[in-house]
Design goal:
mainly beta, 431 residues, 4% helix, disordered N terminus, six-stranded antiparallel beta sheet
């Protein structure tokens, strides 16, 4: 297939920091029409075995009736109840019923991932002439921030309302080998949308006191049919569209080769709505390496050019209307739909890539919620992020963060009002 070659030199060039005005407060609040008066429901959820902190489970509820549960351990999204075409609420996120299971599981279900999500080749990178070596926890690569990463600690609640919560984690200098003290805040929020639906927003903000690398995301697994029944089959039956003309192929160790590859004529072409299971077993080298889909998709540029600043590189494409509801201003970056329930989810992100993962390595975790096992391919992920192994690929959008800068990025999962026809794929103009 046509491809564009990218240098694979292992370096992140240092940049001169220019004097600048003081940054605004870390993680400015979402621009809402009116602040909710009520507080979230909060319940104790045990004590983290690693840091000894008390863990809380917060419940956020929207005016439309959707309900989000957030655990302070790993800044984890535990459950999300959204209605089907008949108005019945159901949980659509994979997860567990207790803290112990979250501490024991190994597949990052629902958690915040950092400092750098996905894999860093050879578990090392350069900033200037300095080499930083990291723990190798996925073959020879450092995966999702290392052995004891952001998902392994209890985050502090900064503030909360009935529809949003901000959580903070401070990672010290050389934590898992990464330079600089990094202070990160994630905000999760339920947003009212035009048409009477809801959206789940998450935004990351981070500052550092030394040059470092940052690539933050959330690792939530969806199954829009609900957490019951034959979930591997219902996952395969989801119809997906991704507005990307190229994906990032990998070597046999799931490290990017350093090229963008055209999706045309491959099982990776989701520009037209296609069932996840339609081609997942195709005789394709990339699918065999990853045992399914586990690849970055290079999203198209948004109108208006680059967003500017550090973090997200694209415009989100959503605006707050005068009636206090959010409205779409462009097509979605990705969509998934379950025809049986009528539920669908649209992805809008400022990130340059969506990592589409078909849950190929699920199946060895503790028992899931409600006594339902989390089997292989029981759910899928749309991980909005910078490209895998970006610290070692100078031609990829930079993940370098310097003192005086702020990493800022937002992703929104938009849930249209369910349709008895089985979801709305018209918002993704993929061709």
């Amino acid at each position: 297939q046509p491809m564009r070659c990218i240098s694979a030199r292992c370096s992140v060039a240092p940049r001169t920091v220019r004097p600048r005005a003081a940054l605004p407060a870390l993680c400015a609040p979402l621009r809402m029409a009116a602040p909710p008066a009520a507080a979230p429901s909060v319940e104790p959820w045990g004590v983290c075995q690693r840091d000894g902190k008390e863990v809380q489970l917060l419940t956020l509820t929207s005016d439309a009736g959707s309900q989000l549960k957030v655990c302070t351990y790993g800044a984890t999204l535990v459950s999300l109840l959204v209605p089907d075409a008949l108005g019945r609420l159901d949980d659509i996120l994979l997860g567990f019923d207790n803290l112990k299971a979250y501490e024991e599981h190994t597949t990052y279900i629902g958690c915040a991932v950092g400092r750098v999500c996905s894999r860093i080749g050879n578990a090392q990178f350069h900033i200037g002439n300095e080499v930083y070596r990291l723990p190798a926890n996925n073959g020879a690569a450092c995966h999702h921030g290392g052995t004891v990463a952001f998902n392994s600690y209890t985050w502090d609640v900064v503030e909360s309302t009935s529809t949003s919560v901000k959580l903070r984690h401070v990672s010290p200098h050389l934590d898992q080998g990464f330079p600089g003290k990094l202070t990160t805040i994630v905000e999760y929020a339920l947003l009212p949308t035009d048409g009477g639906g809801d959206a789940l927003s998450f935004s990351f903000n981070a500052v550092t006191d030394r040059n470092t690398v940052v690539n933050l995301t959330n690792h939530l697994y969806f199954n829009l049919a609900g957490i019951h029944g034959d979930m591997p089959q219902t996952m395969r039956d989801h119809v997906v569209a991704i507005a990307a003309d190229s994906f990032i192929p990998t070597d046999e160790f799931n490290i990017p080769l350093g090229e963008y590859r055209d999706v045309t004529g491959t099982p990776f072409d989701f520009r037209s709505p296609t069932k996840i299971g339609a081609r997942i077993e195709a005789d394709d080298g990339q699918l065999k390496i990853a045992a399914g889909y586990d690849h970055n998709y290079a999203l198209r540029d948004t109108h208006g050019g680059a967003r500017g600043g550090r973090g997200g590189t694209r415009h989100l494409g959503l605006e707050l209307a005068s009636d206090g509801r959010w409205t779409r201003k462009r097509e979605a970056d990705a969509i998934a739909s379950d025809r049986t329930s009528g539920r669908s989810v649209e992805v809008y992100t400022e990130e340059p890539a969506v990592h589409f993962y078909s849950g190929n390595y699920l199946g060895n975790d503790p028992m899931g919620k409600g006594g339902v096992p989390i089997e292989r391919r029981a759910g899928f992920c749309f991980e909005a992020q910078h490209f895998t192994n970006s610290p070692n690929q100078p031609a990829f959008p930079s993940v370098l963060l310097e003192p005086g800068e702020r990493w800022e990025t937002r992703t929104v999962f938009w849930f249209p009002k369910p349709s008895a026809a089985g979801g709305l794929l018209s918002s993704c103009c993929c061709r």
